[in-house]
TrEMBL record:
SUPFAM superfamilies for the chain: Winged helix' DNA-binding domain
Example GO molecular function: DNA-binding transcription factor activity
Ranges for domain HTH gntR-type: 11-79
Domain of life of the source: Bacteria
Matches recorded under Gene3D superfamilies: Winged helix-like DNA-binding domain superfamily/Winged helix DNA-binding domain
Official protein name in the record: DNA-binding transcriptional regulator YhcF (GntR family)
InterPro entries: Tscrpt_reg_HTH_GntR (IPR000524), WH-like_DNA-bd_sf (IPR036388), WH_DNA-bd_sf (IPR036390)
Keyword line: DNA-binding, Transcription, Transcription regulation
Amino acid sequence: MRFSIDASAATPPYEQLRVQVRDAVAAGELIAGAKLPTVRALAEQLGLAVNTVARAYRELETDGIIETRGRAGSFVAPQGDAVRRQAEAAARAFVEQARRLGLDDASALDLVRAAQRG
């Protein structure tokens, strides 16, 4: 997921980032458990001050959209109902296993489609 900041916009950069993360989570582009870039890395990527990204992350955490796990980093918090959270966890586990096995994304998706048919 790539974020971008419009320096000419009237909306402050931290708010632009907060809204982009919130919308990505709501759209399912970022699922529960997805690791977000570190504050420093994202600040560097976007050309922002570290405090600007930190403020966006703090507000997202206050809103329950992300959770920070100390040195482990920041992650998308569980959203929605328990069934969806379990399905997202299963999907993450499958992706991790497929990557460990050396499968590319297209091959992994082919396996999912075959399982749905079968």
